[in-house]
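OP here, attaching both records as promised.
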Amino acid sequence: MEVRREEMGKGKSELRIAMEELCLPCPGDEEQQQQRKKRSSTKDLLCVSKHLTHVLDEIGPTLLVLRQDIQQNVERLQDLLARDPSKYATLTAIVTEEVEEGTSKKVNSCTRAILWLARSINFSRHLLERLLNTSDQLNLQEMVEEVYTATLKPWHGWISSAAYRVAKKLIPEREIFIALLMGKCQEFEDFAGDVKVLLSILQPLLEEANAIMVKHNLDRLKST
């Protein structure tokens, strides 16, 4: 946490710190793309998810329920990875093992943790894309509502939906939210560039998570 605060003090945004930690390859560099394939998708999912919680921390207590949910899933996945980093290096390996054991659909399974972390990241991805669209005249609350309806709402039960409705009323103004994401020493153009690079690297991560869920008919699991 201290290291992250030090980096934030230098003016780096959460997005920029996440990019550096992920060691993002250049999209057209084939050698680096091959190196990317050897990376741990489990670690990458955890990295992105942790930075997502940091962003929610910056916003404040507004989205506390979402933050707690993400943190619990991160901790569950971290505990499993710590047992055997090599065995559980990929999301596919984790889900495949739990499917074979018959535990993938249990409430506290790592499969569910992966599913909900991926869904949260997908929600964030779509929201960031909307934020970059300067011609979009919706305020942040309206924007969040549309993105939520398209990504998370189909899988939320009444408890999760109720928590969202309360949180939505406390969402900050669009300009304040963008300022929080940008950090202290960044222009909007630089921020937009960081977002586009990060989104490009999130795509294969989300595709892996979705593919293994679809393969085992786990992609439509709902919360309470």
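Record two, same layout:
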Amino acid sequence: MSNYRERLSVPVRWWIIAALAVLTILVITAVPAGKPIGFTVAGVAAVILVVLFVRYGGAVVEVGPSTLHAGRATIERTHLGKVEPLTGEAVRNAFGRDCDPTAYLVLRSYLPGAVRVEITDPHDPTPYWLIATRSPERLAAALTENSVARS
């Protein structure tokens, strides 16, 4: 059972833009080369875009009773320190000029917020995780409520 779960799926407007791009590819290839080639090229482009969007938007952030899972990484909650929700300019700075190159990032440019989670494990070279989210306050609350004992 998890305290918080969010799939970082791409927004609907990206799917609309992708559909229009595939339609454009169909037209610009079908007119000079014929309909079969146009549909083939557009079909390949559509498959590539769907795979990319599903893969990119397939990242999951999940807070369980004893673990935090973000993207491809998982960490025990006993190794988590200060949790800070970020919005607006703070998010842009955190992912940009203020970002530590050794931090673990789950960046999704289309999401309005983020949470910075300090890592207290002395054996982990990562100082913090920076996780993009639609609900920074809810994610931060899930990470701080019922926290497991800090080591």
